[in-house]
Amino acid sequence: MEKNTIKYILDIGLGISFLIVTLTGIFKFTGFREFLGISLSYRDLPMPLISNFHDWSGVVMAVIVLIHLTLNLDWIVSTTKSFCKKEEE
């Protein structure tokens, strides 16, 4: 499989896991729910299921980020070097 195709698939997975972590985090965080005007209590929500989704999607997101950084390591190093050279001048 081509490297850009792998990166695209990783980006889609990263976006999906980010959405899941964000939405489940909103439901878990009482103060944020109140700020948004969502009047659901813990009794109204399946909190064990929401916590499970939140935790596992966070793990998936962390793994995808590590793979993404590894695939882009050459670009990260070269860009960092170019920034450092500009500051020396």
Q: What does this molecule look like?
A:
The protein has 89 residues and is an all-alpha fold. It has one domain (3-84). Helix content is 83%, strand content 0%. The protein contains four helices and no strands. Helix 1 (3-28) runs antiparallel to helix 3 (47-71). The longest helix is centred in the N-terminal third of the chain and has 26 residues, at 3-28. The chain is elongated. The mean pLDDT is 88.
- SSE run: HHHH
Radius of gyration: 19 Å
Structural class: mainly alpha
Euclidean distance between termini CA atoms: 41 Å
Q: Percent helix among the residues? A: over 70%
Number of helices: 4
Low-pLDDT regions: none
Q: Globular, elongated, flat, extended or rod-shaped: what is the shape?
A: elongated
What are the defining features of this structure?
0% strand, 89 residues, mainly alpha, 4 helices, elongated
Please summarize what this structure is.
This protein has four helices and no strands. With 89 residues, the chain is mainly alpha-helical. The radius of gyration is 19 Å and the shape is elongated.
Task: Describe how the helices and strands are arranged.
Layout: H1 3-28, H2 30-36, H3 47-71, H4 73-88
